Q: What sequence folds into this?
C-alpha cells in the first residue's frame, strides 16, 4: 500500500474546518479495505469520507478527512499525522505527517462577582479574567474611582492568562470612615488592558498590535458605624431608664416602713438523696418536728447553728428527686423526612446553675419514638436531641441552647407533648449487579423510591435518586432523604426488573447484597430450503448448558420452518443443519439478553456437506487471516460417477477478531466425499489434514495447530544477589539485525518477575547481551530454531 498527500503545511483558523485529502494505492494482490484516522489533535472533530475505502489490486482512491479545528486551539504550528490502516491485505500501516498552522485570535472577557457589596468600611469583589482566545495574554488591571478618598487594591494587578483559562483577581475597595449619616454608594470603573505574551515570528506576525480592552463596574455601598435607627433606640432606652429609676425610687420609699418577714419552706433544708428515697420524716435537735420557719429558728437557737436532722419534706439539692416526688418530661421524636417516629435518639435535659448549664438527665427514644425523663426538680429545662447521622437540635427546633424554648416542670406532674423533629443526614445505598453467566455486566438503571415519604399534597413521593451501573456492575444512590424506607429498582434491557426493599437511618451508608439479574428466554427461528423450495425433515440442533437439543423441520404445513425456544440469554449458539441426502451446514447466532432472532435462512444443497474448525498457534491462540483451501478427490455422485470437470473447490479465510478468532466454516462440499484441507499463513509452516464427509449428519469439525517459521526467545534476568531484576535491557543480534527487550515486573505479558521475551526471530545463532546502569553486562550464545521457544537466563555482574 502506498499513500501520499499534497497537504504538507495547512493553514487554519480557530473554529474552522479544513479538509485533508490522502491518495491511497493498493500495491498488494488482494482486495483491500483502507481506513484513516487523525493523530495529534485529540480535541478536534474529524469526519472521514469514506469510512472504509475498498480498493482492488493496483487500484487508487482518495480518503478525505474533514477536521474541525477547536476554537481554543493554541496558535502556532502543530504536527499532526494521518494514519492509514489496511484491513484486508494486511499491509503495513502508513503515516503521513502534516504541519497545521493555526493563526492567533486573541480575545479576553472580564466579569465580576458581585456587582454591589454593602459594608461599613471596605468591600471585597472577585474579578474573573477569562482568556477566550488561543494565545497567552499579559493582563493589567486599573480602577477609576469617583471619590479620591476611596482606595482600590488588586491581588494581583498584573497577570498572565493562558488560552481557555479563567483566573480570579481579588479587588478590595476601601472607603473613608463614617460614624453617622446615610449610606453612600462608591462606584469604581475597572479597566482591563491585555497584550499577547509573545509573537510567533515563524508565522510572520506583527511585532506590535493593539491591546485588548475590557471594562466593568463595581459598587461599594458604605454604611455608617452608627445608624439612625440605633441613635433613636439609644434615646428611647435612656428615657425609659430614667422613668424606671424614678418609679423604683418611689416604690422603695413607700414600702420602706413595712417590717421585714422571711419564711423558709421545708425544701430549703439539705438532705441526702438516700434519706429522701427512704421517705423517713426528719426531727430537729430538740426531738420535735420541724415544720417551717419557727422550727428552723428554734433549731438554730438551741443547737448553735447545726441541725442533727432535716425537717419533714426536705429534698436533695443535686441529682434527681425520688420517684413520685419530682416532675417528668415526656414526648415523641419524629423525622423530618417521613414524619414518622425515630428510635435511638439521645434526649438530654439541662438546667442553669451557678456553674453554668448542667446536664441533669438523659434518655433514648424507643422504637416508637417516645421518651421519658423522670425525677426532675421543679424548675425549667432546655432539651437537646442528638444522634449520629442527625443534626442536633434544641427544643423547640433551635440550633443552639440560647434560642431554645424552656420546658417548665412541676413536682409530681408530667409535662407531656414535648415533641421534636430531627433532620437526618443524607444516606447512600450501594450495591452491585452480578452478571452471572454473562461475560460483561449489563448496563442497568437503578432508582430509589421512598415508601413512607409523602409530597406536601399528601401523595406518595416518586423516584428521588437515579443512577446507572458502571463497567463492573456497581452502583451508588446518593443524597437520599433519611431516615426512610426505599424500594430500589434495577432495570436492564432484556432482563426482568429486580426490586429490593431496604431502610436507611440518618447518614447511613448501606451496602446491599449483590443482585443477579434474570433474563427472559430467547428463541431462534427461521427457514431451511434446498435453494428453491422449503425443505422438511431437516434436523436443527444446538447445545444448551452442555445438553444437545434439536428440532425437525415439518414436511407438511409450515414446511422447512423451525424454532428453538427457551434458550438462555445472553448467549452464542452454534446451529447445525443436516438432512439425509443433503449433507450438513452450520450457522453461529448470537442472542442478546431476552432477544429473539427470526431471520435465520439456511440453504441445504442436495448431496453437499460442510466443514468447520479452528486454526490456532502453539499457545492455543486463534490465528486470524489464515487461508483454508479444500483439495482432494472430491465427492462421489449419487450414481457412482465422478464430479464434473472444472468443479470449483471453495477457499476461505479464518476470522480475525472477536471470541471466534481463527474459526472457519466451508459449506457446499459434495457429500459423501474425501477432502484435504490445506492451511497457509505468512510466518507459519503450511499444514494439510484429511477430512471425510458422509452423505448426511453433522458437519465435520477439525482443530489445527500451525507452527511458526520463526522462533522466539524468553528468559529471566537476575541481579548479583540472585533476585529478579526489573528494567534491564536485553539485546539479541545475529550479525545482520538486532532485537531489544526490557525485563519487566511479574504479570507483564504473562512473564514472571524479571522476565523478557522476543518473538519473530529468524532461525540461527544469536549473541544475547544484558545491560543495566551500574552493573556489569553479560553475553550468551543462543541457538534459535523455527517454531521452537528457546530459553536463556541472564545474570548481571556487580561493578568492582
A:
Amino acid at each position: 500500500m502506498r499513500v501520499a498527500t499534497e497537504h504538507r503545511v495547512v493553514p487554519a483558523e480557530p473554529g474552522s474546518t479544513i479538509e485533508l485529502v490522502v491518495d491511497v494505492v493498493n500495491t498488494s494482490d488482494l482486495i483491500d479495505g483502507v481506513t484513516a484516522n487523525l493523530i495529534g489533535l485529540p480535541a478536534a472533530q474529524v469526519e472521514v469520507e469514506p469510512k472504509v475505502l475498498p480498493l482492488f489490486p493496483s487500484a487508487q482512491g482518495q480518503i478525505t478527512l474533514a477536521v474541525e479545528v477547536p476554537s481554543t486551539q493554541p496558535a502556532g504550528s502543530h504536527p499532526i499525522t494521518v494514519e492509514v490502516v489496511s484491513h484486508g491485505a494486511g499491509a503495513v500501516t502508513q503515516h503521513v505527517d502534516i504541519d497545521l498552522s493555526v493563526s492567533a485570535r486573541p480575545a479576553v472577557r472580564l466579569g465580576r462577582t458581585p456587582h454591589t457589596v454593602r459594608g461599613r468600611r471596605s468591600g471585597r469583589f472577585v474579578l474573573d479574567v477569562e482568556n477566550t482566545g488561543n494565545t497567552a495574554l499579559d493582563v493589567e488591571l486599573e480602577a477609576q474611582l469617583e471619590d479620591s478618598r476611596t482606595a482600590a487594591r488588586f491581588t494581583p494587578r498584573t497577570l498572565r492568562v493562558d488560552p481557555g483559562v479563567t483566573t480570579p483577581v481579588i479587588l478590595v475597595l476601601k472607603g473613608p470612615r463614617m460614624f453617622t449619616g446615610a449610606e453612600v454608594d462608591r462606584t469604581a470603573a475597572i479597566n482591563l488592558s491585555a497584550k499577547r505574551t509573545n509573537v510567533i515570528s515563524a508565522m510572520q506576525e506583527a511585532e506590535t498590535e493593539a491591546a485588548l480592552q475590557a471594562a466593568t463596574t463595581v459598587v461599594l455601598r458604605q454604611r455608617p458605624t452608627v445608624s439612625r435607627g440605633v441613635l433613636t433606640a439609644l434615646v428611647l432606652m435612656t428615657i425609659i431608664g430614667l422613668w424606671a429609676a424614678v418609679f423604683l425610687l418611689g416604690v422603695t420609699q413607700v414600702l420602706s416602713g413595712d417590717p421585714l418577714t422571711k419564711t423558709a419552706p421545708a425544701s430549703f433544708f439539705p438532705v441526702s438523696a438516700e434519706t429522701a428515697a427512704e421517705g423517713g420524716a426528719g426531727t430537729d435537735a430538740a426531738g420535735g418536728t420541724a415544720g417551717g420557719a419557727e422550727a428552723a429558728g428554734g433549731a438554730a437557737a438551741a443547737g448553735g447553728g447545726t441541725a442533727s436532722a432535716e425537717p419533714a419534706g426536705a429534698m436533695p439539692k443535686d441529682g434527681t428527686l425520688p420517684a413520685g416526688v419530682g416532675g417528668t418530661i415526656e414526648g415523641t421524636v419524629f423525622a423530618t423526612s417521613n414524619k414518622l417516629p425515630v428510635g435511638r435518639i439521645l434526649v438530654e435535659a439541662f438546667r442553669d446553675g451557678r456553674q453554668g448549664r448542667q446536664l441533669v438527665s438523659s434518655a433514648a427514644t424507643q422504637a416508637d419514638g417516645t421518651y421519658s425523663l423522670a425525677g426532675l426538680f421543679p424548675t425549667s429545662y432546655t432539651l437537646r436531641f442528638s444522634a449520629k447521622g442527625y443534626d442536633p437540635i434544641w427544643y423547640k427546633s433551635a440550633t443552639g441552647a440560647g434560642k431554645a424554648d424552656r420546658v417548665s416542670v412541676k413536682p409530681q406532674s408530667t409535662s407531656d407533648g414535648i415533641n421534636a423533629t430531627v433532620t437526618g443526614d443524607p444516606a447512600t445505598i450501594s450495591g452491585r449487579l452480578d452478571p452471572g453467566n454473562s461475560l460483561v455486566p449489563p448496563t442497568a438503571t437503578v432508582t430509589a423510591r421512598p415508601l413512607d415519604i409523602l409530597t406536601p399534597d399528601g401523595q406518595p413521593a416518586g423516584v428521588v435518586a437515579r443512577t446507572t451501573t458502571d463497567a463492573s456492575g456497581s452502583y451508588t444512590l446518593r443524597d437520599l432523604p433519611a431516615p426512610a424506607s426505599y424500594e430500589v429498582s434495577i432495570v436492564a434491557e432484556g432482563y426482568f426488573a429486580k426490586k429490593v426493599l431496604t431502610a436507611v437511618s440518618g447518614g447511613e451508608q448501606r451496602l446491599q447484597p449483590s443482585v443477579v439479574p434474570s433474563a427472559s428466554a430467547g428463541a431462534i427461528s427461521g427457514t431451511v430450503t434446498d435453494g428453491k423450495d422449503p425443505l422438511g425433515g431437516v434436523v436443527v440442533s444446538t447445545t444448551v448448558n452442555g445438553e444437545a437439543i434439536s428440532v425437525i423441520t415439518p414436511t407438511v404445513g409450515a414446511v422447512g420452518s423451525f424454532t428453538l425456544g427457551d434458550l438462555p440469554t445472553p448467549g452464542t449458539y452454534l446451529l447445525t443443519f443436516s438432512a439425509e441426502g443433503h449433507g450438513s451446514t452450520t450457522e453461529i447466532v448470537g442472542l442478546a439478553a431476552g432477544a429473539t432472532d427470526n431471520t435465520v435462512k439456511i440453504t441445504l444443497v442436495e448431496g453437499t456437506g460442510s466443514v468447520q474448525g479452528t486454526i490456532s498457534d502453539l499457545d492455543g491462540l486463534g490465528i486470524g487471516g489464515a487461508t483454508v483451501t479444500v483439495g482432494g478427490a472430491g465427492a462421489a455422485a449419487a450414481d457412482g460417477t465422478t464430479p464434473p470437470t472444472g468443479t470449483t473447490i471453495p477457499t476461505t479465510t479464518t476470522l480475525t477478531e472477536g471470541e471466534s478468532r481463527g474459526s472457519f466454516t466451508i459449506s457446499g462440499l459434495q457429500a459423501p466425499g474425501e477432502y484435504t484441507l490445506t492451511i497457509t499463513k505468512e510466518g507459519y509452516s503450511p499444514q494439510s489434514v484429511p477430512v471425510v464427509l458422509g452423505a448426511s449428519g453433522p458437519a465435520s469439525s477439525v482443530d489445527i495447530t500451525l507452527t511458526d517459521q520463526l522462533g522466539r526467545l524468553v528468559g529471566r534476568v537476575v541481579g548479583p544477589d540472585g533476585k529478579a531484576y526489573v528494567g534491564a535491557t536485553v539485546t539479541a543480534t545475529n550479525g545482520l539485525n538486532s532485537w531489544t527487550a526490557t525485563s519487566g515486573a511479574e504479570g507483564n505479558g504473562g512473564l514472571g518477575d524479571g522476565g523478557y521475551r522476543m518473538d519473530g526471530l529468524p532461525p540461527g545463532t544469536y549473541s544475547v547481551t544484558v545491560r543495566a546502569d551500574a552493573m556489569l553486562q553479560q553475553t550468551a550464545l543462543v541457538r534459535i530454531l523455527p517454531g521452537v521457544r528457546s530459553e536463556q537466563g541472564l545474570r548481571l555482574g556487580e561493578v568492582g
About this structure: The chain has a mean pLDDT of 82. Residues 266-303 form one domain.
